[in-house]
Every structure is written in C-alpha cells, then in structure tokens.
C-alpha cells in the first residue's frame, strides 16, 4: 500500500473517530434525559445557573431525548462502520459505509432543494406558527408553560416583543395581567429592568415593544446565513471526500490481487 492510500486510511480513521465520539455522546445524553431527566436538569442548572430544563414540559424533553437517541445511534453506527472498515482494511465495511454516507448526502441535497423551493411557504408557515403559539403565553396550564419559557427566551435574546409587535398580546385571551407587555420585552441592565414601569408603560426608551420577533428571527437568519452555508458546504465537501476515499480504497487497494471487478477501476 502506497503513501497516498495510507494517508487516506488514517484520514478516514480520524474523521470517523471524531463522529464516533460525537454520536456516542449524543446517544448517552439522550438515554440520560429519557431515564432520569431531573438529575440531568440539576447538572445543567449548576453549570449555566439556569432552570430552563425544569421549566420545560416533560413531553418536549421526551421528544428531545428521542431525537438525540436516534441521531446519536445512527451517527455512532455509521462512523463505527467507517472506522472499523478503514482500520482493519475491510472492503465490505467500507463499501457499506460509502453507500450510507452517499444516501445521507443525497437526503441533505433534497432537504436543501425543498428549503429553497418552498422558502415563501416556509416563511408564512413560520409566521402562522408563531401566531398560533403566542396566544398561549402566560397561561397557567402546565402544558403551555414551555411556550411561555420559550417566548421569554426569544424576546430576551432577540430584543423583540410579540410576533409583529406588542399588540399581539392584546389578542391573547389568556393575558389576564394589567401589564401591556411582559418583562421579557423590556430593556435590562445586568438582568434588572432598566425602567421598572416598562411592563405597564412601555416606550421606545425602555422596551422593544414595537419590534416584532418574526422580523428579528428572519434578520438573525440572514445575518448568519454565510456561516450556515459555509458549515453546510464544508460538511458536504467532507462527505464527498470520505465517499471517494472509502470506495476508492475498497475497490482499488484492499482486495485480493487475483479478483477482478468490472464495477471498479484503478
């Protein structure tokens, strides 16, 4: 085996080892969340001084755990095949690995194509979804507590208020407070309200009551589009590279010398 094939072998080993560890970590976190949500929430609370997991609805936590388990298990399995195939020079494992990565790449291209093709519909659906959730804000029903926590996080981080503006809260039948806007819409200094009267008397100087969260979300996406595209392009390039390396090594190097395969040329 030449120097080029050795480099390809160790590159595949390193690439898949990284994703093997990442997939295993995601799988472990998913299982931990599913089995014992409270201990995981306590650990996260000690690390970032927040209580968001304890406030999040149990059904949402369960869905997150399912996603982590599924994504982690698939990543763990595929990267395990790639690592073992490269390390032990197994032609069969590398062929299976290459085909699986190719399938993943094709699915990613389909998702990207649908995202661009349905961009207008997606934007309108996003607006409608935000409108449908904000009407449950500040409801005391346990099942909607997650919505309140999520909206508080969005408005605090993006400096916005409501979907279009603060008037969205007037359409909320569950809004029983005398406040015009929630505290999450107000400007803060060191986590303290800049103006204590803001929730009752919001202005442009003490709140973001005229700034809608839909526009803020769209603006944030546009500002970070270059990063997202760059990461996606880098990932796609890496996937194409490992597909080529895996299939090339499997076809051209790691096979019995007396066996001729018509579907592979060197």
What are the SSEs and their pairings?
Elements: H1 3-35, H2 37-48, H3 52-55, H4 58-87, H5 91-117, H6 119-134, H7 145-158, E1 188-189, E2 192-193, H8 213-223, H9 225-252
Antiparallel strand pairs: 1-2
Helix pairs in contact: 1-4, 1-9, 4-5, 5-9
Summarize the structure.
This protein is mainly alpha-helical and 266 residues long.
What does this structure look like?
With 266 residues, the protein is mainly alpha-helical. Helix content is 66%, strand content 2%. The chain has nine helices and two strands. It has a two-stranded antiparallel ribbon. Helix 1 crosses helix 9, helix 4 crosses helix 5 and helix 5 packs antiparallel against helix 9. It is elongated. The two termini are 13 Å apart. 23% of the residues are buried. The C terminus is likely disordered.
